Amino acid sequence: EVKDKKNGSENSDEVQGIRSNYVLRPRENMLSGVTQKLPTPLGNMYITVNKTQEGDFHEAFINLGLAGSDVRADTDAIGRLISLIFRLGSADSNQRMRAVIKQLEGISSGMVAGFNGDRVLSVPDAIAKGLKRVMEPDVYDNKQESLFVNEEVSSTATETPLQEESFAPVEHKEMCPLCGNYSVVMVEGCKKCNVQLGGCGAYSAC
Predict the structure, then answer these.
(1) Cα–Cα distance for residue pair 197/192, rounded to 1 Å
(2) Is the domain of 65 the same as that of 146?
(3) Highest taxon of the source (predicted)?
(4) How far apart are the first and last CA of the chain?
(5) Domain total for the chain?
(6) What predicted TM-score, i.e. pTM, was given to this entire model?
(7) 88 and 190, same structural domain?
(8) DSSP readout, 118-130?
(9) Start-end of H helices in the chain
(10) Quick one: 198 and 130 in the same domain?
(11) When comparing pLDDT for 14 and 30, which is higher?
(12) Within 10 Å of residue 164's Cβ, how many Cβ atoms?
């Protein structure tokens, strides 16, 4: 609550200014979206970014890992926060997008995917790369050869994958509750922490 310093009363002008900056834009019934398949150190990630009819970025959906896994929960949370930033009434759409990219780009982790210029340092870094690509002016023009409808959102999506040939295949990994590394994989129907993936090897759940 903002109050006048002299008499302690609420300053309506300041409060109104603060409130106007945090008004969320309502979701339209029809949005256009592009979905990308991106390699990350923890497996392939799908990121969908939807725009309004006016061309403003409005929401993002990020899917990585199996349903119920820690990494799925983390990426879902990141997607929701990005969507919240997109819908804020302050600054223009491209400024908000650039602000998100600046915060996520270059974050490194213990594992890296790709080589040379295609290196992906972490899941957040992969998200930043995906967001950068959707800022290219021709991405939403539906000029790509491969088109499909994303099942999670009502939109027309264009698949624009990175060149996966330069990336070694990786499995979906989950975080080990004992050592904290993303080294838990399915082995013969059981979740096990894999030493070769940097884990402790002590965790197992069937």
Answers:
(1) 11
(2) yes
(3) Bacteria
(4) 51
(5) 2
(6) 0.64
(7) no
(8) G-B-SHHHHHHHH
(9) 12-21, 70-87, 93-104, 123-134
(10) no
(11) 30
(12) 15
Range(s) of the domain holding residue 61? 1-168
Q: Which residue has the tokens 């256009």?
A: 32
Residue 200 buriedness (CB in 10 A; 0-12 / 13-18 / 19+): middle
Structure tokens at 109: 């982790």
Same domain, 177 and 162: no
Contact by Cβ (8 Å): 24, 88: yes
152 with 71, same domain: the answer is yes
Tens digit of each residue's pLDDT (9 = 90 or more) over 92-107? 888 999 999 999 999 9
Lowest mean pLDDT among 37-41, 166-170, 197-201: 166-170
Sheet strands (E) in the chain: 32-40, 43-51, 57-64, 147-149, 156-158, 174-175, 182-187, 190-193, 204-205
Q: What does the block give as tokens for 164?
A: 């996966």
Chain mean position to CA 178:
26
